[in-house]
């Protein structure tokens, strides 16, 4: 029996690059799909938001002269590409999926509503939520907070390439230490880069706990779901 009925999993687009440095690494993609299948087999209802940073980010586009809104729309389309890739990899290993998009683009995916998402998850499908919030000036972190709250997820799992929340960036500061748990307020007061501000604030205001963990180590998703003490829990 799984500890959670329904979860929101946030995956970074950047991690999908794997060793490639750009685009989609097929090995990383199939590792992600296998890990998701493992927890789906445990009976957990799963909604997924995947970023688009491996393809395009509006903010970096703006620094190169792109219109910010058009750049963000390009970023949202990038998340749709990644969502299709993930959905395809899951389907290939026998997991039924449903791509729900925040921007109308049938037949690429169905237009998102909370009720359609819940209906699909209750029927055993993994829902992949594409196009973030559907609006510019947001990120997929905020998109995941929003979807997590809307679908009444028990918890949001944020899969990253570090194994939790640290006092400083562990890739830059060797003295940084990891928190096993931390409050939303402490994340905010210490200015820790767990997720962007709007995403953290939404989780805080609506009581959605976040677990940050390293998704790039195969088997970790099952471990965090089972509460095996990896990652960092962010809560009230
Ligand atoms: N984006 C947006 N609105 C949203 C979600 C995403 O405009 O609600 C755009 C934004 O330009 C962002 C890009 O899509 O940079 C890709 O998402 P993100 O940077 O969150 O991807 P990740 O860092 O997780 O790979």
Structure overview:
The protein is an alpha/beta fold and 236 residues long. It is 38% helix and 18% strand. The chain has a single domain (6-235), classed as Acetylglutamate kinase-like (Carbamate kinase, 3-Layer(aba) Sandwich). It has helices at residues 26-40, 58-63, 68-92, 114-122, 140-150, 184-190, 197-206, 220-225; strands at 6-11, 45-50, 97-101, 110-111, 126-130, 155-160, 181-183, 210-214, 232-235. Helix 6 packs antiparallel against helix 7. It starts with 5 loop residues before the first strand and ends with a strand. Bound molecules: uridine-5'-diphosphate. Uridine-5'-diphosphate (UDP) is lined by residues 12-14, 51-53, 57-59, 71-72, 75-76, 78-79, 132-133, 135-136, 138-143.
């Amino acid at each position: 029996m799984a500890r959670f009925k329904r979860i929101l999993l946030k995956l970074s687009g950047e991690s999908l690059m794997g060793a490639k440095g750009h685009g989609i690494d097929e090995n990383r993609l199939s590792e992600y799909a296998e890990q998701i299948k493992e927890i789906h087999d445990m009976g957990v209802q799963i909604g997924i938001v995947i970023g688009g940073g491996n393809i395009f980010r509006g903010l970096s586009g703006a620094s190169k002269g792109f219109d910010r809104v058009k750049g963000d729309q390009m970023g949202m389309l990038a998340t749709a590409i990644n969502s299709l890739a993930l959905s395809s990899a899951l389907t290939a290993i026998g997991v039924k999926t449903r791509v729900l998009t925040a921007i109308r683009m049938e037949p690429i995916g169905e237009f998102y509503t909370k009720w359609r998402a819940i209906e699909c998850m209750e029927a055993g499908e993994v829902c992949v939520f594409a196009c973030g919030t559907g609006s510019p000036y947001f990120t997929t972190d905020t998109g995941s907070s929003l979807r997590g709250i809307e679908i009444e997820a028990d918890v949001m799992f944020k899969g990253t390439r570090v194994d939790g929340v640290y006092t400083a960036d562990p890739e830059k500061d060797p003295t940084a230490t990891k928190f096993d748990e931390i409050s939303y307020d402490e994340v905010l007061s210490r200015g820790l880069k767990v997720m962007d501000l709007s995403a953290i604030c939404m989780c805080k205001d609506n009581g959605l706990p976040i677990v940050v963990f390293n998704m790039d180590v195969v088997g970790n998703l099952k471990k965090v779901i089972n509460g095996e003490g990896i990652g960092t829990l962010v809560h009230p």
